[in-house]
Amino acid sequence: MNTSAASRRAFLASAAAMGASLAWGRAEAKPSRINWTERRDLYPQGVASGDPMPDSVILWTRRPATPGQAAPVLTLEIAEDEGFHRVVATARAVPKLESDWTSRVLAGGLKPSHVYFYRFTDQTGAGSRIGRTITAPTENSDKTVRFTFVSCQSPNEGAQNAYMRMIWEDERKPADQRLDFVLHLGDFIYEVTVYPEDAPNGRYGRRVREFVRYPHGEKIGNFHIPTTLEDYRLVYQAVLNDPDIQDARARWPFVCMWDNHEFSWQGYQSVQVFGGKARPGASVKLMANQAWFEYQPARGVRLADGGRDVWVSPPVTDVLPATYDDNGLGQEPSNIAAISSLKLWRSFRYGRHLELLLTDNHSFMGPNPLNDERNVFGVEGFPFAPDEVNRIIDAGRTYDGGKPPEKIRFGTDEAPNWAKDQPPGAVLGAEQKAWFLDRLGKSRATWKVWGNSMGALDCRADPQNTPKAPGRPEWPADGGYGMYAVADWAGHRAERAEILDFVRDHGITGFGTVAGDRHAFYAGVLAPTLPPHPFEPVAFEFVTGSITSVGGGEVLPRVTKKDDPLRSISVYDPPNGAQAVSCIDFTVLHGVRAAFELQATHDFDKAKALHNPDVSPHLSFLDQGGHGYGLVTCTANGLSCEFVGIPNPNERATTPDGGPLTYRVRHDIPLWRKGERPELKQTVLEGDVRMFT
Ligand SMILES: [Fe+2]
Fold first, then answer.
1. 689 in Cβ contact with 666 (< 8 Å)
2. Full residue range of the structural domain in which residue 18 is found
3. In a domain, 92, yes or no
């Protein structure tokens, strides 16, 4: 245990920068002297811990004042046992009204790779539930590291059965095989919420339940969005009132990065976008950042207020940026002040075998040129955008090594290339990207895992191969591949390629990403380009299905018309009138010919015989309606990722195991050497995954 005055002083400084008070581990453990009585009702959002390092972790609770009583003053105790007979640190924590009664403590001077228990008790003896946390191994430790990664939880439209399953399994594992932490890749909250009366028949088969009522807020379509700090705080409280989310936060340290919904669904930087129209939102971004800061036990550095324990927002005015620089940064002082108020990109080292790099993919993302109304190519009826056209627009003046075409052509359509003098679409921003590449280049960990809120694996199909039929739309024969989503890294391929080229040029191995956001399970390898361009993968990627949120695979059978001549691309109708299911995954993995064959013959083998090897050579597994979580294990020789899939979590499971599984599929990646490619080996441990492989 490191108890030197110098390291304690350094901790004090970093605790201050995080707006946390400090607890310091002592050499000798002592029994608790506090008369603690558990009163969960007084700590309605439970307890949490986050961002573990070998000697420290952040501990959190929320204890609102009881009306008519003195403001709470809490004692935090950290012990080596659940009975608190071996307490190694205590600290005072004072929740404040200005922080919505949340409180955070940086606990330092702890032992590495160690399980601790903690609890908060007020001056009357009323105590929080007991939390459990785990410190990271030291940098030279050979320990196997295990973590799960999750995203997209929504008590508004479902249950958190995935966490029940995660807890149930972890409790039954031997101590040395339990999880070290949970990586939460965002959509921890959904700022867009639906009130039950606005969707009496539910949404896409889900029951919409009473969740949060914004005292202020604004209604847009069927959604309500927050407009004040109080609104944002209330949605965090509502999420944390969920018993399974609360149990998970009490059991493991969380490492959290936000995705889009922590601020605004279609927003970027401090700009909100509704119905395609931009709205200046610097003041709203500050509210969103403040609420995140108050409710997440994380080592985010607040730049706005010089490190006081209460958030202070800089003054801003809500003005849309008039111009953007070459890295996509909106040139408006209020925009820059708002997005700089909380710096969340950071990295963690877990022993010899894991370095976890986290990036903020939304605060610096530029306007997406693929959303520009001048990008209009496509064929009515096909759910795709032309792959190559999107590459041209996204890359702007950097396309084809700086030789963008003057005109864009798709089939018989032709239009001037309006993007030819523009910089490419931007995600990370200049400063964060420089940090990320520097960190990646210098990391000596066996596995360098990018905790990436957004997916990067392309999701595309080959509409040019659609079997012709009377009344069926035709994609131009030379129109090339068609892509689905463009909002994430798959729509920012120039910057994605810049990162992957860096990996290749520096001979970096053992690199890959784990991602969320897509409400889908993906396993595959990342390459700067796909056929007909060269296919040279340099990294792996796993995307986790949502904890709760509705996925595309759930939606398609509900919205695809029975007589749609392209129905077989999206939906498979099994024989004998059985319920239609999405087959979008099959289409993406094998091509449209295989999907039409599956519908015609109901025979997976016959259908897979028509597999197009060029459509998705990068994918091993795809389930766009999947829910659950990913479980990663890192050792000296390999990394594995297990997808734990659960059925639609419409209602809370009635059994403590979180209910049945749909499948359990593992991908193993042996550590590859410089010049070699990452290879995924798939093992189906449980379930029928014929549609997803
Ligand atoms: Fe989401």
1. no
2. 1-135
3. yes
